[in-house]
């Protein structure tokens, strides 16, 4: 621990030594965000928020949402085991790691203000993005869907009412990487409307891992994402934005690699980047939706916003999770989902008072098969949720503001299950909860902003489609305090937060097929406590030089295991148990990152941009038995770009995972029966050519 603390201290000390040169550089911009459902400068938001703008996304080679790990503290973002097109997203140890509908995500994902209920297939391609906001801690008094861990907001660039745009990129790289990206847009109706269309095609035709079974398939990936937006301003006080998007993926996921000997085999060549599987693996995913957002400025103080959306997703996932040729542990998931959401927001800002009141409704249906339909148990779940929420603040004296918020959620879930060889069963449950937030913030000076808050979060319970275990409602209480500072005429920025959280009934899914007959996976409800620190720093010490760093410390402890947990989770020694004092899943103790970019003027027409980023993560556990650590990595990315001074064209050569480091991010272990792991992507080299017309 001391070694890691010294390393992180040195990281920020290195940024501090550039202070004498800060007077030579232009200041850092205060990025405009909508974390509190109204436009504010990031340095005046009394929340723990990380923001990546379009320049950071491009410079740091962030191609999809997984790249947030390179910049955001106390976040774990990896694909679920065997489902590379989906997302397992945790913030401060809270999230969802199972690609199914049994529980709702602990971290809410919003794309252009629309809530995405399922994180299956949610590996969002990041192109034509204005910014990404990551909010840490319970959200509910400002947002449509309540969440216990935080929220991630992806914001695309909207149609421009004044300027035409046409831009395209071609990316080629190792392992048969081929990406085609483009965006076009134009004003319409004399500047009263505009349209913008974006599309990304991604293909990887060579395998990252090798299936040693002669009849087996090799991993591949192809995906097509598109977004079309139409904006209209029929009156000065009314704005309408219509959007339509699709996400089409056809991939062959890599199988798990055998990590040790079992009764059914071993890793035959000792290389974890090889595996054996005769299964015809596939991951087919189709997602899309339409949305309408209407903003109406009722007066100088009041505004009304309506967000209406319908979305669908269909996923078929077939994979081998044991790493050996014998069929010991295989996965089959056939999921169909639809959702309708409606949100209304009434905002008020005038003088020393600001307030937001909202209404949110979601109707979601899920249909799930855990085996081919002719032999499977079919599960059908319908969820309906209604919420009212409000939050307001008052500046009681110059610079000192107090705020408070409250939310009421009423939710119901209905489950029907049955199929060949399975009895028809049904269940229904309702959940009602009031949550709140209270806080104070103080603008000490133009350079220093302080805040403190207390908040509660809630996530409804549910049913287990895989076997035993009731999912109880989850609640969390979080206390946090932080600071946001700017020095040397905004050339050095340092933000920090400390938080403490206590959790009741945190849902945990464990593999129990060999200890509980008929229950492949069982849900348990544990109590836990968390505390941590998040620090983010940015500096512009010299013209053209940008430095960014982050540090996260996260301490987690299971305080009360579910009393229904069996004595052991394995039929053979070593017996696996869940005990008080264990760490919670997906909670590395330390994380830190550093990113630097330097722009050098080669001539009046051409600039060169060198960018380097480094990130470290300690190990984490995939479940509360703490029997096998995952993660633990130090990754380096690098790129060199040539760009015209007018930014019309750009050529970039980049590499991710420069040192080709290998780490395990998930796996399964059942003594004597299964011992398998999933690995990160190897070093990948890419060359990107882009042109704006």
Describe the structure concisely.
The protein is mainly β and 693 residues long. 3% of the residues lie in helices and 58% in strands.
CATH architecture: Beta Barrel
Mean pLDDT: 89
CATH topology: Maltoporin, Chain A
Number of strands: 37
| Count of helix runs | 2
Rg for CA atoms: 25 Å
Distance between the termini: 52 Å
Q: Percent of residues in helical segments? A: under 10%
Low-confidence stretches: 11-24
**What is the number of domains?**
1
Q: Which CATH top level class fits?
A: Mainly Beta
Given the helix and strand composition, which structural class is it?
A: mainly beta
- What would CATH call the homologous superfamily? TonB-dependent receptor, beta-barrel domain
In this structure, how is the largest beta sheet organized? 22 strands, antiparallel, barrel
* Portion in strands: over 45%
Report on the structure:
The chain has 693 residues and is mainly beta. The chain is 3% helix and 58% strand. It has helices at residues 2-16, 54-59; strands spanning 32-33, 40-41, 49-53, 75-78, 88-91, 94-96, 107-111, 114-116, 129-136, 150-156, 165-173, 177-188, 193-204, 210-211, 220-235, 238-252, 257-258, 274-275, 282-297, 302-320, 330-350, 353-369, 378-397, 400-419, 422-443, 448-459, 474-487, 492-511, 521-539, 545-560, 590-601, 606-621, 629-644, 649-656, 664-670, 674-679, 684-692. Strand 22 and strand 23 form a beta hairpin.
